[in-house]
TrEMBL record:
Residues 153-247 form the Wall-associated receptor kinase C-terminal domain. It comes from Rubroshorea leprosula. This is non-specific serine/threonine protein kinase. It is an enzyme of class 2 (transferase). One of its GO terms (cellular component) is membrane. It is found in: Membrane. Its main location: membrane. GO terms for molecular function: polysaccharide binding; protein serine/threonine kinase activity.
Amino acid sequence: MDPKSFSTLRNFLQKCAVIIFLSSLAYETLSLDSKFQACMPQSCGNGPYISYPFWIFQEQDSFCGYPNFEITCKNNSPVLTISDDNYIIKDIWYSNNTFVVVNAVAYEEMCPIPLQNATFDRTPFSLSSDNVYFSFLYNCTEQPDYHTYPVRCASNTSSYSFAVFHEEGLESSNYSLESCQSFVNAPVYMDTDTYSNFTSLLKANYSEILRMGFLLNWTAHSCSNCESSGGHCGFDNDHFICFCQDRSHSKTCNDGNSIGNSPFQFLLLFFPSNY
């Protein structure tokens, strides 16, 4: 092939390479942008915005969060199912991996009494040490001389059921816990405003106390570095992913560790460094 024909062919191939490169780059950017957009924080209408590690079923793709953090919107509220129990999420603090939940039973039933202690074994969630315990005592033969919250729907003419904060106060008032058939601790989270308005707390009934909710911790890969770099966190194939405007990254949008092959690698095949 004569030099002129070779040069013409080379120029043609290089133009084709540029077109393919730009097409590939545009496709990749659009596809990654769709994941970036898909994992934007969403709301059920009431309650906090939902983002990684949580994700909303039928509103967000599953790669936006962890499998056990799936949220369902029910009556415009975010609901998380843990061990077959539904919990309404009242608030989320993403900065320290904590959130406040209320057992949906507290809103759905006329007599929402806890029958067993709340446990979160074999889940990514755990009770926060910032909770206080609201103790339920059922079928007691004696009424205490102490401030309690009557549970009338679980009482009758021969037995008395009630709830109380700091059950040790009962014992110090010489009340025998053995006079009760069963005993259950329900965690309750009280913020600073609640503590400062303790008088209104004393006037509340037990179901209103339960609807205050309790604080849970969660365990998941931290999202703060990805978010601070402008990305949205996700989870795919058992790996953490940072979805960015240009493409997916392994940690942050500026770590240089993109997921997948770059179209620049393809372009180098047609534009060698010594050209």
